[in-house]
Design the sequence.
């Protein structure tokens, strides 16, 4: 009987210890890694209207669709200095994910896939190995009025040495997509 | 069943006659349970070197004894030998009660296996040490594939969960050493934390007939028991060392047992195994290594009348998950599906990198039992389990060092079990259970919680009975009630809260509005009533018929209620539903067993009708800035599962034996009239055994496994726009892979090293032909082939 008593006592004690330890309200978690916002800024080299392409999804992986905007039309036959910025606006103040991308530049690459004679993009930056990153680029617009796709993809851990990847061709790149958006742009 | 033996002194008549050696010791030997007389028991006096045998009336008499201490050894054909000492001061008469188990032996003969059965009318199969030896380096799931009707549902090659007749995870209870495993078992990618090497015997009970273990085993129960403790003075141990070529892995396991004749025992066991990247026939499966280690300590007192034990086990594992299976978007998934080879193939390594899991499971258990004459046995158990699960993902920057999932699940269980076995024709089992569980997801992950903070309280009570109504016919009936109460604290994204419609149905559970997120306090209680009734009919000396009907109720698990997030390897959102209620299973099963001369066969058939079967299925798409993702929601519909498991074996000659096991299950959502997802396809396993006892117990077996293509599946394919392709494509996530054939080989020897020691040698070759194939029940089948050929060598020394 002694054993039973001891057993009961130890069980009661342990149940007591556990039950009084967790009456606290849990701490809220704001997603740290989500990229809520991607902004592509195109500045014409000879001056003129700056074009911004933006996608913003303030609930991250929540049900609300991202808000996708294009500030205005792209001029024909124009060379633009391009850059892209990634933000996590779930944090306050917003966290600049571009910095994280640049810190690990050998593990990231931004791809620009343009269709329907919208123009061509060439990289103007490079990582420590001499491979492009794609945060800065030059964009030469097409020569005739058109509407087409301007797709921007950020890949994590791509295979930068695969054929065509350093020229910005995504097909062999592999890796995982961190953010991807297709904008419809108008050239006029 | 009971190997113990007990002696109780009832009457002591002492008459002093002086100092000479003329005393008489006489008595009667009876059954402990029902007072029946036991004839032919041998009573041996060590000191006098005299022995007598009990007569037809159980009586015995030894004359001409001197005063003083007398050592007695009492043995009987079907009982374990017992040693007692009496202090003789005069003539003595004793009634000696033995634990007589002829009855149990009959049941053993029916099964032909010499193993303990947990139920008499359910479909139950057992794996013993001999079969388990070949799985010394494998997981529980893999070993259970030996049982017909059991398959596994896998995540890659190292995470395998047992699936019984098409049901798995929360629908299959896993009992280890009498404790129900509590290790976040709802997730397909959460392998059960069981160290196979510490098991002495594994039983699988299909369906929910074993109510003592739980009322919610809609699929079945897997009972893993450690080796049995012998109550005699022994010291023995065993060590297994093995290696495998696929993954260049090794395993070691050692155990040592010390028992004393007074019933005290101590048992220590430890194991470790490790392998590097596994290999498919054509490529390396990068990041599929594993390392796992653990130990158990078991000590206590084991007497027939009473005893106690204290048990502790520690198990730690680190499991890599195929690198190529991590996707960030639907276009990544499309690329993986379209590619014949995994998208990441690197050279072989032992390194384990993200994505990976680190799981630690600790179990402490203590129990106490006492037998009462003319009643039975009462057992009191307490156990504590601590399960820590860390999951590491591919993340940016130094976050890779930080887990993306960090869950700590603690469970306390107290239960009281009683057994009434004094009556001749019937037996009763009953019990009470109380359980408290707390889940703590660490917010330091920087990722929203997969499973919320919750407290859960369970209470259960059961009564089962077994009635022998003559000629070996047995009737079994039981009832169980369970109460579950869940008190959770969960953050919802406000947008998700509204999209689910919870703002209308659950507005009263909001505790705090944090702007973009809401802190809520869902509290649910569930009342579950389960019962089971069955009979075993002895048709003849060679065949038995079992018929059983069971009803079981299962409350929704935390994943089904609270899930809200992205599943990386499936590239889909998974959403729980707070409105989900219990599912109720009605399972009718029948088995026919036949065994005569060289032929034995058994067939199990079952029909499982499940009301409000909880499952997950796609309901639409949601767009994020990584493109669209399909949304899969937990919901419930009525379902019907039925099928059969067939086993046949034929002894051709002294050396040759042929056997076959085949299983089929069909699952249908009867409300939507659609096939259920992830149902195992038809499979058949044929084996030829060649054995020569003279060649050191040589046994060679060649096995052929055929797994058909699953033709019945729900079409969950969807259209998705892939920006880099500039077009929409159909994403085929539904079509099962084609049928496949595998050949396995296995050779065993046993060498006598010296009087006490023997060495068992096992050489196993899996996938002999190095066949490339994919398995429908592997969640990562889109990304890579299964493992190729694997040579395994296991050496086991018993000493």
Sequence:
């Amino acid at each position: 009987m002694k054993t039973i008593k001891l057993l009961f006592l130890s069980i009661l004690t342990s149940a007591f210890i556990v039950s009084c330890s967790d009456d606290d309200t849990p701490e809220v978690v704001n997603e740290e890694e989500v990229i809520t916002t991607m902004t592509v800024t195109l500045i014409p080299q000879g001056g003129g209207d700056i074009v911004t392409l933006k996608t913003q999804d303030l609930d991250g992986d929540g049900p609300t669709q991202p808000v996708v905007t294009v500030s205005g039309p792209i001029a024909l036959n124009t060379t633009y200095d391009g850059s892209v910025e990634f933000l996590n606006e779930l944090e306050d103040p917003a966290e600049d994910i571009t910095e994280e991308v640049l810190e690990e530049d050998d593990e990231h690459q931004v791809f620009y896939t343009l269709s329907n004679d919208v123009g061509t993009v060439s990289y103007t930056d490079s990582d420590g190995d001499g491979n492009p990153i794609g945060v800065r680029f030059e964009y030469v617009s097409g020569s005739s009025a058109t509407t087409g796709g301007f797709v921007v993809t950020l890949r994590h851990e791509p295979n930068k040495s695969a054929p065509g990847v350093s020229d910005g061709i995504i097909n062999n790149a592999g890796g995982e997509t961190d953010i991807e958006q297709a904008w419809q742009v108008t050239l006029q | 069943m009971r190997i113990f033996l007990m002696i109780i002194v009832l009457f002591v008549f002492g008459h002093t006659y002086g100092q000479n050696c003329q005393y008489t010791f006489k008595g009667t030997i009876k059954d402990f349970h029902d007072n029946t007389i036991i004839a032919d028991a041998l009573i041996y006096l060590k000191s006098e070197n005299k022995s007598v045998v009990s007569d037809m009336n159980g009586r015995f008499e030894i004359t001409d004894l001197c005063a003083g201490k007398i050592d007695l050894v009492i043995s009987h054909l079907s009982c374990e030998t017992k040693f007692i000492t009496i202090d003789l001061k005069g003539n003595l008469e004793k009634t000696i009660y033995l634990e007589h188990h002829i009855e149990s032996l009959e049941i053993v003969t029916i099964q032909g296996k010499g193993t303990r059965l947990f139920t008499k009318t359910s479909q139950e199969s057992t794996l013993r040490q001999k079969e388990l030896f070949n799985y010394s380096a494998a997981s529980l799931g893999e070993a259970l594939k030996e049982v017909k009707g059991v398959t596994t549902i896998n995540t890659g090659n190292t995470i395998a969960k047992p699936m019984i007749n098409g049901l798995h995870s929360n629908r299959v209870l896993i009992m280890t050493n009498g404790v129900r495993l509590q290790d976040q078992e709802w997730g397909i990618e959460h392998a059960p934390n069981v160290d196979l090497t510490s098991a002495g015997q594994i039983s699988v009970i299909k369906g929910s007939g074993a109510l003592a273990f739980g009322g919610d085993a809609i699929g079945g129960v897997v009972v893993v028991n450690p080796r049995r403790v012998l109550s005699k003075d022994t010291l023995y141990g065993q060590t297994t060392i093995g290696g495998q070529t696929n993954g260049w892995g090794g395993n070691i396991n050692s155990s040592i047992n010390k028992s004393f004749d007074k019933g005290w025992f101590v048992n220590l066991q430890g194991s470790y195994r490790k392998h590097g990247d596994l290999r498919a026939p054509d490529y390396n499966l990068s990041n599929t290594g594993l390392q796992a280690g653990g130990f158990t300590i078991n000590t206590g007192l084991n007497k027939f009348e009473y005893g106690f034990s204290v048990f502790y086990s520690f198990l730690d594992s680190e499991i890599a998950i195929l690198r190529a299976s991590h996707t960030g978007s639907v276009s990544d998934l499309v690329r993986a599906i379209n590619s014949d080879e995994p998208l990441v193939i690197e050279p072989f390594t032992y390194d384990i990198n993200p994505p990976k899991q680190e799981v630690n499971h600790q179990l402490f258990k203590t129990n106490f039992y006492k037998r009462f004459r003319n009643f039975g046995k009462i057992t009191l158990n307490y156990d504590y389990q601590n399960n820590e699960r860390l999951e590491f993902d591919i993340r940016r920057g130094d976050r890779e060092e930080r887990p993306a999932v960090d869950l700590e699940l603690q469970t306390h269980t107290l239960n009281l079990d009683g057994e009434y076995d004094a009556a001749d024709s019937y037996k009763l089992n009953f019990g009470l259970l109380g359980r408290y569980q707390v889940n703590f997801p660490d917010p330091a992950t920087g990722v929203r919680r997969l499973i919320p903070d919750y407290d859960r309280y369970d209470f259960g009570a059961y009564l089962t009975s077994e009635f022998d109504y003559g000629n070996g016919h047995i009737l079994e009936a039981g009832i169980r009630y369970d109460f579950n109460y869940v008190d959770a604290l969960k953050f919802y994204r406000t947008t998700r809260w509204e999209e689910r419609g919870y703002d209308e149905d659950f507005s009263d559970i909001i505790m705090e509005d944090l702007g973009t997120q809401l802190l809520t306090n869902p509290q649910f209680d569930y009342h579950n009533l389960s019962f089971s009734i069955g009979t075993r009919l002895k048709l003849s000396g060679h065949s038995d018929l079992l018929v059983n009907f069971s009803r079981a109720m299962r409350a929704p698990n935390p994943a089904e209620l609270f899930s809200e997030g992205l599943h990386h390897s499936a590239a889909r959102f998974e959403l729980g539903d707070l409105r989900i209620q219990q599912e109720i299973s009605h399972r009718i099963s029948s088995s026919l067993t036949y065994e005569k001369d060289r032929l034995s066969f058994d067939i199990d058939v079952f029909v499982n009708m499940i009301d409000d079967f909880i499952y997950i299925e796609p309901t639409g798409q949601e767009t994020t800035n990584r493109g669209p993702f399909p949304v899969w929601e937990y919901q419930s519909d009525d379902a019907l599962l039925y099928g059969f498991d067939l086993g046949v074996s034929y002894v051709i000659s002294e050396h040759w034996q042929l056997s076959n096991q085949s299983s089929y299950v069909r699952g249908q959502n009867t409300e939507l009239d659609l096939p259920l997802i992830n149902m195992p396809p038809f499979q058949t396993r044929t084996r030829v055994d060649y054995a020569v006892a003279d060649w050191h117990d040589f046994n060679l077996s060649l096995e052929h496994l055929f797994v058909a293509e699953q033709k019945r599946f729900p079409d969950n394919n969807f259209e998705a726009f892939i920006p880099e392709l500039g077009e929409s494509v159909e994403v085929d996530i539904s079509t099962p892979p084609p049928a496949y054939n595998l050949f396995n080989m296995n050779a065993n020897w046993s060498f006598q090293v010296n009087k006490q020691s023997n060495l068992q040698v096992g050489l196993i070759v899996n996938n002999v032909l190095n066949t490339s194939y994919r398995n429908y029940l592997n969640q990562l089948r889109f990304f890579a082939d299964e493992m190729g050929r694997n040579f395994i060598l296991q050496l086991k020394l018993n000493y």
The mean pLDDT of chain B is 87. Chain B touches chain A through 62 residues (CB under 8 Å).
